[in-house]
Prior knowledge:
With 380 residues, this protein is an all-beta fold. It contains one helix and 32 strands.
Amino acid sequence: MKQLLSLIILISVIFIYGCAKSLIKISFDKDENQHLMFGGNSGRNFYYPVEVSDSLVEIWNQDVYGSFDNSSAVVKDSLIFTSDLGGRIFCFDVYSGKQVGILRSKGSVFSAPLIKNYNLVYALVIDNENKTELIFYDLFRGVELFNVEIRGRVLSEMILESDNIILCTENGEVQKLSIGAKEIWSTKINSKNYSNPALADNRILLADINGYFIALDYQTGKIIYKNKIAGPVFSGITVKEGKAFFADNNGIVYCVDILSGKLIWNYDTGDKIRSNPALDDYNLFIGNLKGNLYSINQNNGSLNWMTKLDGIIRSTPLITKNKIITVNLNRSFSILNKLDGKIRKTFELNGRGKLSPVLYDNILIIGYDDGKLSAYEFVY
């Protein structure tokens, strides 16, 4: 706590007349435990190589006023950043829950912000318009650097890779921009997209509303292949060791070879899926809208176990070495044994679980409606 306070140069919340934004101005130290984008990395595996207990104590709860989409918070240097559908970006101290700052904008933010050094990047979808403002904000100086107008609405999660940003619009335009807000390339896939893209083997991977699995060259934006594999896709891509995993609106989970774009296996869960698969070293974990959570073998698609939870699952679970943590829309989140799917404990919430859980330094971050962010500490 004392170390964190020494890192913060200035904490203030002010309103700027005309653009309705307030201020976040901070200083970071080097921090290996970072979670700088949705899924933690461009492959989006949602995996933490630690063991956790099934005992939790709530240490703080904060109100961010607006509702959440099925996204996640991001964390850097003991500070949490989260977006809401009211167009706001909030920053909190992980340990105390104290609000460090807030950015207010007119519009909605559907995806998690990105952090690169002192650059905070977020996609502000303008209300009642088919456009997005991609905003680059300097956290050290507390000033907006760039505001880039994007054609179409950015409803899916963005990718941060090195000094570049990848985003996809609802109307099927994929763009690569530099952290300096310069467009590098733009490619139209000629179909609507609601999936969260991933990056692996120098390829950007996504799946569209028509069930096509698509790979684009990361350097040039050229479409490498566009293969019809699935039904309509509203979930996201998760990648590992040359394989891509995703699910469609029919409830079918797919494993695809990244280089060829060919199907390796599929598994039918029987109901719609809206979340990214989560992976550990050997298995895939995913929930559907019927409230069932599945563990599936990554290599052959065989079922390890299925557990019925009391509530619709729309968010990606958090995976550790020994436990699974998943939220649902029935105002609760659960901790399960990873080996057999047995529910260890269920914790009640005062709203529908929305954000995918995030783990930082033994602290679990849970987001739920209406705009509540809670932190729990594992007890051993």
